[in-house]
Amino acid sequence: MKSSKANLPCPPLASRSFSSPWLHRWRPLPKVVGLLALMAAFAQVQRLALLPLVWVLVALLWALSGLPLRRGLRRLAAPGVLLIAFVLFLPFAVGETFLWQWGSLALRWEGLERALCLGGRSLALLALAMLLGETTPLPALLAALGALGIPDLLLELAWLTQRYLQEVGSQWQRMQRAARLRGWRPRGSLWQPGPTWRQDLPFLAAAVGTLLVRSYERSQRVYQALRLRGYGRAPLVPPAAGGDPCSWAATGLALAVAVGLVLVNFGGYPD
What we know:
The chain is mainly alpha-helical and 271 residues long. A hairpin with a 2-residue loop joins strand 1 (98-102) and strand 2. It has a two-stranded antiparallel sheet with strand order 1-2. It has helices at residues 22-25, 28-43, 51-65, 69-87, 90-93, 109-135, 138-147, 152-181, 201-228, 245-266; strands spanning 98-102, 105-108.
């Protein structure tokens, strides 16, 4: 059996026109190298004065992606709230320079600086990861990661997990649609619970149990279909394409920016 039958469908990157946003036309392998270098440099930023530069770079890349700004803000909202909850105590617990004090409660400069640096660079890293995922098809992204040395087993697990979550979501929507056709009306949700929402809990518990059983049976059928198509005889993720000179030039620019950012951060540049 030919190995191509076991591979993921190849992304239509070559067919993308020049009118597509530039970040979509940046070839996967060079893009992964460039963005990973920027992410590594962002993770090293310890100076508050460098955060505006970091976010200027993020804003520039986002503009090149052509993605709606509202989508990015919506995706960053949940991790942003978690980050704020994580760093909220730092301005009141770390440092000796008091900016404001009321009784035993004191706002300290060192803690505030650390909280801003940690929160700012964490959100920047999430934004870059989001850009990478939004502008690169998953098979091409996994192929690029495989070219960088990630084991095939991990790549296949990532792809199968993503595919399995899609199947579970689709199955859940079908079950909800069937229940509504039989007269079930939701009384609320986890985000907007109504006064009688608890009456839906038995139905939801039974639906989740049914969903797990059906998903397990579905996974068995999918695995058998994959085995019939040659799964296990050849890598599931196809090898990554090298990329064009423009993509590698962009990667070189990203590497230069990343190295410059690290040198400025650790090179004694005045605060």
